[in-house]
Amino acid sequence: MMRRLPLHMIGFGLIAFLTGCLGQQGPEPQVVSHVSLPAAGLPHYQPGTRYQFDNGRLETVAHTAGEKVTWTFGRKGSTKEVRYRNPAMPPLERTSKSSTTESTIAAPPDSLWPLQPGNTVHFTEKQLQVKSDGTRKSRRRAWSCSVDKAVRIHTKAGIYDSFPIECSRQSNSAKMRWYETKRWFYAPSVGHYVRFEHERRRKPTKVYELVAIGDLDGMHAAIDPELAAVIQPALERNRSNQPLTEMVKSGYQVTVTPTETWRNRTGRYCRDYVIETEGSRVEGSACRQTDGVWRPNR
């Protein structure tokens, strides 16, 4: 049986705010049990949707075209990637302030999909990076990917069923030296991965989990009265960087901190803010209406 994510719906530029039991982040997710899931098709992304992770990472769908999705990262979107809908495939293009990277991938874009245990693919990636100073660097990478048995895992967002997708990179030499392993826990009920693990040779393991799903236009958003009771007074009365902390009726502590105040194109006052609850962090923005209510910045 599929477990629904414990989502609280809010109307301040974020659709889903995940407020499950939060604990210390570890290298391994807590596996509740192995489960049986039907084969999962490729995700369908909508422009404007954004995914917030517990380490502050913000992924936004900027554009879709067939099998390709353009993503921006962070609030300002200064880093951009063009990827296949398949999250296991490396980015085809990556643009940042310091460099531009293009990759050619010797594998079909739907490799491993529909997801089901035992699916595998091996491919090479040819990469060309051009730095802002004109320096060029070519790389050739060998990847091996597989889909493991579906698991029901307990993460910071709650309990849900997912397919673990694992991709490891080795050297091209006969020694096949291991360099890194990436692992996505893809939840079909969410249509995105809810946990990501990145192990690298001689570097610390990176782990982050999904805590919120949002829409830049605030479409279909409904206000959670408990959150609104904290957000509204914080935006109305608190100075920038002055937090407001309240214990809401459902039993968790919420802190709302306005960060910047500005005017939009219509002249209304708007504020950026951060919502924090026992380890998760979500960013948003809202503008003050004529009735005194702060609503999503659209």
Structure overview:
The protein is mainly beta. The strands form two sheets. The protein has a twelve-stranded antiparallel beta barrel. A five-stranded antiparallel sheet has the order 17-18-19-20-21. The protein has two domains: 7-215, YmcC-like fold, CATH 2.40.360; 225-296, no CATH class. β10 (120-131) and β11 form a beta hairpin. 4% of the residues lie in helices and 52% in strands.
The whole-number mean of residue pLDDT values reads 83
Point out poorly predicted stretches.
Answer: 1-26, 216-223
| CATH architecture classification name of the largest domain | Beta Barrel
Q: Which percent band covers the strand fraction?
A: over 45%
Radius of gyration based on Cα positions: 21 Å
User: In angstroms, what separates the terminal alpha carbons?
Assistant: 37 Å
Please name the CATH topology of the largest domain.
Answer: YmcC-like fold
**Name of the top-level CATH class of the largest domain:** Mainly Beta
Count of individual beta strands = 21
What composes the largest sheet? 12 strands, antiparallel, barrel
Oligomer: single chain
Helix fraction by DSSP (H/I, runs of at least 4): under 10%
Overall structural domain count? 2
Structural class: mainly beta
